[in-house]
Amino acid sequence: MIIYKTLDEIKKIKAANHIIAQLFEEVLPKYIKAGISTYELDQISEDFIRSKGAIPGTKGYDIGRPYPPYPAATCISVNEVVVHGIPSKKQILKEGDILTIDTVTVLDGYFGDAAITYAVGEIDETSKKLMEVTEKAREIGIEASRAGNRIGDIGAAIQEYVEKYGFSLVRDFAGHGCGKEMHEDPMVPNYGRAGTGAKIEDGMVITIEPMVNVGTYRVKILPDMWTAVTKDGKRSAQYEHSIAIIDGKPVILSVND
Ligand code: MF3
Ligand code: CO
To answer: What integer best gives the mean pLDDT of the chain?
Structure first.
């Protein structure tokens, strides 16, 4: 069941997302350098989120057995990790790495959700292209999120764009509705067929979060039950925005304005 939001609720969801946008633009870039651990980046993120009066939505997030509750305030996915990388003191960033930081906040009962991929120093040309195409894929997905279209049009537009570059779209994870719960209907796949799925209408709040791989779209889950890596060990990137549909058009909520 899709839960449509009032403008007042959208304001609250935007406030939760605003904290993430600030974290991504004003805080984390100062710390993303060779030598820092993903654990430290997680601590910095959690402190910032709490300093804004919000709580981290992923910490303790429990989807039930056999999965252990998610242990951290961020998911930090380095290089071949696609999503849900668990921050660790043992994982030290190196020059040339790329990392996706995915963060969820809860403020005043509403969830914010966004992700960004950063480069550590100088990265190879393929990684640069991967990041550029993935960010643009998110923009194309957002563009397709308008009244008159259906949810399937979003994934179709993203897939058409990304596959032109020889990259692939992860299928095992998708965007989603977001509001009083982190994950609500509808599911928003990053691939698929135009003209399928629910109608896009005012009051919807959804995430657009393409995960793009250099090689195969197939992933496998590590024994920690969370970390998803590419099957071929090649790199992956992700950019995520939370958006609302207002007056038939997409409005990005995870912005720092
Ligand atoms: N930002 C992620 C998402 O888009 C959050 C899930 S991580 C989890 O769904 F650990 F909380 F599951
Ligand atoms: Co999400």
So the answer is: 98
